[in-house]
Amino acid sequence: AKQWFEERGNLRKQLESDKLFGAYKGSNVILIQLEAFQNFVIGQKIGGQEVTPVMNKLIGESAYFNRFYHQTSQGRTSDADLAANISLQPLQSGSVFITNAHNKFDSLPAILKEAGYAASVFHAYEGGFWNRNNMYANMQYDYFYNKKDYKMNEPLGWSLGDESFFQQSVDAMVQEKQPFYSFLISLSSHHPYSLPESYQKLDVGELKDTIFGDYLQAAHYVDSALGHMIERLKKEGLWDNSIFLFYGDHDNSINEWEPFESFLGKPLTDMDKQQILKQVPFIVHLPKGANAGLHEEVGGQIDITPTILHLLGISSADKVMIGTPLIMEKPLEGKKVVFRNGSYTDGKVWYKPSNDGNEANSQCLNADTGEKMDLNACKGGGEEARTELTVSDNVISYDLIKQFRKQQNP
Ligand code: GP9
Predict the structure, then answer these.
(1) Are the beta carbons of 303 and 84 closer than 8 angstroms?
(2) Catalytic residue flag (residue 77)
């Protein structure tokens, strides 16, 4: 495992010669993880209304990744957090936040603090959920703003509405010494998505009172709350000196495809469904709207921390991380996104490992059409995917980062 991570670190080292390495040195970082937010709603309309008008507009002045994937497993929201802030794969079962909260990790907040940043995490729910209290202390956040720190002035669903959650979180950011890292985890768009009638601003027609219709309403509400947060950041003078990023944590667990098809206005192939299930948006707004544009190359949650560190010019060459930076002058060739079940995609192929352990029964599919391809086209990649999962599992299960560091400084 040590050698594998050293090689990955060397690759990131080479990428430091890229022009964007350090281009946003010293900026604040505001990263938002949106609950169950999938990519398929972006740019779509229902009943003539845009589902995500704020995001659609923001995309015009941001880097937007439309082939970006969540890499979660059973640990759901906590797995997304692990991938995004620690750049390791989740375990096959359980949640690393619960099973390995006392490990040594190279976390984004810890690295940023070493570089002189303040680091806080915000989530308006019980601090003990997903063992966050312990995990966040270990990740070295200065402070975890949880339910007890918020005024419950907009009770909604499990807790506080995102509108108020975002505003109260900015209240805290304004007080923070700069530069700061703020990580926010939203909650209002949690399954089963039903919002009070007065919150349902979209006319979803016959989807009204279905779980899918409710999901669209929830996405619309989150989009609007995010818009108000952006206005507020501008007013507080934080917008132009911050890197503002958000992504979805995982799929929405709506397992019937008919409403997706009627919403998207087309029948969906198996590959379409696969892509929809795994794709979450990743949108990066850089100060002054610089480096905006559509990125069609693949990326995943594991790449978020390396991307942020690259833009800030903080080397991650000696850190135990899987990901590679996604915002560079020239995207990395041969980039692959590996999923917990051993699948991977590079944008051209989609590899599906067999369930019976017999590689001959694995499938290599065209990532656009789903057409079967010669398995050899996925062979090397399938092996790389297995290795990535194994080395990540070993690092987590045997707390190897502690040992690596002991070997470096005995
Ligand atoms: C609760 C929230 C929900 O704090 O993060 O997590 P999920 O059920 O989506 O994993």
Answers:
(1) no
(2) yes
